[in-house]
Each structure stands twice: as structure tokens, then as C-alpha cells.
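Issue 218. Parser rejects a valid record. Input:
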Amino acid sequence: MSVYEIGRVCVKTMGREAAHYCIIVDIIDKSYLLIDGPKVKRRRCNYKHLEPIDEVVELSKGASHEDVISAIKDAGLDDLMNSVMEIPTE
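Output the parser choked on:
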């Protein structure tokens, strides 16, 4: 079993949405995942640009944006998902 599973909460480490939390919605192939979140646009992302955390929400494969938002609320992760992780610059 991979660390990158459907429903796993991750932090983006690269790009314009860096330091924002997202959820894995689907596994496209061995290099790419489909992610979505309240502050992250639904898109394909390389697994090397994500850092998984311990949280997992209950999601079905390919869930819609509305399903992702309701799963976040059901898991009580509203504050976490709307926050920004501080990334050290030095």
C-alpha cells in the first residue's frame, strides 16, 4: 500500500499553491495524482510536489469538488484545510 492513497491530506510543496493543504482524489498513474481542496484548484499534480500528512478523509475515487468539501467538514478539518503551512526559507 502506498502513502499516496485516495483521501490522504497532503501539503503542496511546489508551485503557486505551495504551502496549501489538498486531498488526493484519484491516482492517475505512477507519477501523477489528481488533487483538490478549498484553496487548491482541482488539477493533476506530480507526487514529488506533495508532502503527505497523517490525516485521511473518507472519499470515493474521482469524487467531485462538492464531495471533497463535505468530506472535509465531516472530518472536522475545516481550519486545517483553510490554513497555510509555514515553509522555512533559510
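Fixed in the parser; the record now loads. The two ends are 34 Å apart (CA to CA).
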